[in-house]
Amino acid sequence: MASIVTLVPVVLAALPGVFTTALTGMSTPVRASAIYDGTPDTGDMPAEFAACGYAEDRPCVMGATALSDIGNRLHDDTFSVWNVISVAKGNAPNTDATVRCSAMLAAVVAGIEGDPTLGGAIPAPGYASLGQYEWTRAASGVGNYVSILFTVHVESRAI
After folding, report:
1. Are the beta carbons of 112 and 129 closer than 8 angstroms?
2. Reported pTM
3. Label partner for 135 (CA 20 to 30 A): which of 48, 93, 99, 154?
4. Strand 35-37 and strand 143-158: pairing?
């Protein structure tokens, strides 16, 4: 039987569900149609959206496997999946978009912390957590916007 080299495929499959549950459950919910699995629809970009497993100008996953240090020939699998949350607020101050974007990130992180196995995609004792993040506050043709590019970091034991 072949062993699993990495959990990247199952984590990529699980993230859209985690994002959808977290963001549509907010007191002011994000539309489910604005939560993308991969590349967002740039032809019809909503004012606020989330994209799982997406980074515009870099690979969407960075990771490595290594033999465990206890001599049992099992592999540890460590990787990070890039995602983006973005909010455009037209001519409103960037503060409005910053607050909303931050609330959206907090909802996603709470969803991950509530189930760090991502619905069983990561076998125990593995887990997912918030990793790196980058904030952008800028203006574009649609007005002011804030985007948070962030990783969901995964530590696991490949089987």
Report:
1. yes
2. 0.90
3. 154
4. unpaired
